[in-house]
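Table S2 (continued). Query chain:
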Amino acid sequence: MDFSQPHSLTALYKMATPMFLGGEGQLTDSQKFRNASFKGALRFWWRALNWGRVLKESSGDTTGALKALHDQEGALFGLANDGQNSCQSMLSIHATLQDVKLQQPREALKELGYLLGQGLYKTGITRPYLEGGTVQVLLQFKPGTPPAQVQAVRQAATALGLLGGLGSRARRGLGSLSLQSITGADGGVQTFTGMQQIQDFIATLDFSAPGSPPFSALSQTSRIDVSAHGDTAVGILAAINTEMQLYRSYGQNGKVNGQEARRNFVADHDNVLAATQGRPLAQLPERAVFGLPHNYFFSSTKAKADINPAGEGRRASPLLIHIHVLDGGKFVAIQTLLPGVFLPQGMAVDVKTRAKQSLTNTSVDYAVIGRYLDGFGKRSTLRAPQRG
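Corresponding output:
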């Protein structure tokens, strides 16, 4: 490579599902796309994909690997001035939107209400969102950027477009950016509109890290499934919405949206109900593994329980849902499970009912999510977790 010339990559994504990007009032027209949000997602996937490599280079020393990963990330993507260190990014990002529509809050997407959550859906959508069209992202690297760094960014941009998305509830399948192609500076085009191309990419990834990374990252216990197929993006995400709600919900009068309640987690319901009546909660509900906060409302008693990390914190879901656009107008739902350290050592969880309890037993069982994934009858596993 000639280091005197800048290198570039162009990634073309379809906006497969509605995207809630930025806070209320930050979207003024359909051309407003926050390059910083894309860069943040790119950094997330770069970290997730490179943890195994850096851990090996650090001879398995987690503390040393975290520092090395932080340093490498800062050198590539930039490091804010903290009074001691600062570093400019090796790449610039410029996004161009085409045929993307800005939709105002309205009564829509009711079939996605469970995945949207109360922050985005009440009697209708609560915030503007972007819908449809394409996003073309130009990634330009500074002259002298090592080829390995360019390749690492290319991998991250690909993973983002095959497994992830942008904006609020991106881990629940909203804001799925479906990668169609990546074009290199030499004009070579790599497409990702067929299942074989997706499988081939996943086969190149490093899953060597032990099964409890200290953040969301690929590891020996990672699992990637194609869970469903369909003819529309919203339709297939609605199928995910229904299955997740049926799997997780206790129901009301034995029903969940008119269907028979499965009641997979009766102990969760009973233990938290008892906590609202004054009995201490001994451990996290099983369903907390899907992420925190994890809140309850009991229609029988009108009692509430809010369960979240101390200090009003959050723990993002280890399950990532992505809707991908294939050739021929077909869609697939790809679900990725990234087990790891659920909460930092020593972090308590607040249980707020009429009183407040601090819960120190914060262990979770990722098999709970595994059983949810197993419930999709037409699933195919692209990457199975390593056993033992």
